[in-house]
Amino acid sequence: MIDRTEIEKGVPQEKLPEKTLLPHEAKIKKRRALVKGIIYTLLILMAIVCFIPFLMMLVNATRSNDAILTGFTLIPGSSLLENYRTMMEYVNIWNGFKNSLIISVLVTVLTGYFSALTAYGFAFYEFKGKNFLFVFMLVMMMVPGQLGLIGFYELSKTLGILDTFIPLIVPAIASPFVVFFLRQYIKTTLHPSLIEAARIDGASEWRIFHTVAIPIMMPAVATMSIFTFIGSWNNYIMPLVILFSPEKYTLPVLMGFLKGSQVAQNLGSMYLGIAISVVPIMIAFLFLSKYIINSISAGAVKE
Amino acid sequence: MKNLNRYGYLFIAPFWIIFLVFNIYPVALTFYYSFTNYSGSGVAEVVGLANYQRLITDTFFVEAFFNTWKIWGINFALQIAIALVLAAIFSDMRVKMKGLAFFRSIFYLPNLITVSSVALLFGILLDWQHGSLNMVLMNLGLISEPINWLNQPATAQLSVSLILTWMWFGHSFIVVMAGVSGISNDYYEAALIDGANRAQTFFKITLPLLKPILLYIMITSLIGGLQLFDLPMLLTDGIGSPDGSLNTMVLYLYNQAFKYNNYGYAAAVAYGLFIITIIFSAIVFKSMYRNERKQARQV
Description:
Shape of chain A: flat
CATH topology of the domain at 57-121 and 156-298 in chain B: MetI-like fold
Largest sheet of chain A: none
Strand content of chain B: under 5%
CATH class of the domain at 57-121 and 156-298 in chain B: Mainly Alpha
Structural class of chain A: mainly alpha
Shape of chain B: globular
CATH topology of the largest domain in chain A: MetI-like fold
Oligomer: heterodimer
Distance between the termini of chain A: 17 Å
Order of helices and strands of chain A: HHHHHHHHHHHHHHH
Number of strands of chain A: 0
CATH architecture of the domain at 57-121 and 156-298 in chain B: Orthogonal Bundle
Radius of gyration of chain B: 24 Å
Strand content of chain A: under 5%
Distance between the termini of chain B: 54 Å
Largest sheet of chain B: none
Number of domains of chain A: 2
Helix content of chain A: over 70%
CATH architecture of the largest domain in chain A: Orthogonal Bundle
């Protein structure tokens, strides 16, 4: 994009002496160390600002309502159990946890398996209308989820699956973006001659898919699965529209429910409820952070 | 060999059956409803373009449109500025900062947390009298009396913008860093040898080469921002208080459909939002592309 001549043109030459002033190098080094120190301090300050809402949440989760009302301190209180009991009296947060887990796991598995299947079908077979279907899928990928929200609700009503997990799980079978990503991936990693060899050995098409294609696609499926899981776990508007019974609520919907319930009277319990919804994700991130960040980087550069 | 190709249809069939039923059909059905006065039950009467006529004169929708833009715009400017400064610091060859992995993780963390939990958390942290934030700010002597963050339009919108910035600058930073690491070191070495200072290196090398990545961030952020829902829904009363300042387009859509049973009109709101998204994505794309061409001509 940029050629060398432009760089040379844009750089004034009079700055060069700084590099040749050898006696002053020690001084420059010292100044650089100082600058570095200041930058590190600012970065750590920023990290603290980033983390402080979570810290406040964790500390307040252990303090009683009265203590929270009188002021803020970083010293944990001793009302953790009491807060927990008050919260559980009105809202069973573990139930929401269980619902979210069931839905997110099933969504992740369905998305992974069927996207791999579809990607394989698009990548290694020739059939009429293939290109049209693929382009059509790409176009539909651009459509935001909210566009069909009302139709989706009406459809679920007609099918009698409102207030069940079905409308939250089954649509995961069709995930255009994951199909697109996996197709690009398998096109470059699986050579058709490998499939031919398996065919000559007498393997059926299903077997080839399950024993040859799936293992090769696994790294890409894993990458996509992280985002599928997070997306499903954090989804708010869909379960909010579909589910009515509190015992079926997912964690995000339960959070909204918490706000409007009696628990909101007790701030300590509120903080604890939020903390319970947040901490597992934080722990998971502790182990997966490198992997997640690399996936984001890779995804961005490829597009 | 040829008959094996029918497996292609078989393999993609589950996807297409589910896609048609749960994706295409709802989108088409919503489109149909946008021309009716459907109210969630009974008969949907076709009313032609009435819903769309109402949409362009609806002050609440127009207000929601500008609110969404204001909230997204402040957030995006801050988020991208922070991400670029951080990227400039960590890619500087002379300073050679360490701890990139650590800071990246910490800065990214808020992005992973469920938005509804974030909304609830800030809802009580920002509380006027009992919120911990006001207490801390007062203890530090930064403010003399509690700020009623979520009860005044300006501070409420600013709060949402800042929460969004807090949630997303780490993500933008990771993406910008990925772009920076894709730039060949030769450029930076050459600049170093030629004695270019930091600002020159950043503005003449890093920024121009990052353009495709910045475009990617801007478009994904814009599409996400126009769909802003969870935060305004759960921070205040769910209908855009205070004074309609947190009324965003998707919040308006949700309330029209599921609170007031105006399904037909809500469907029109959905399509209005869709058209707006397409138009602005196209504008962003085009302006970036045109700038590139202009620069190419200058060189």
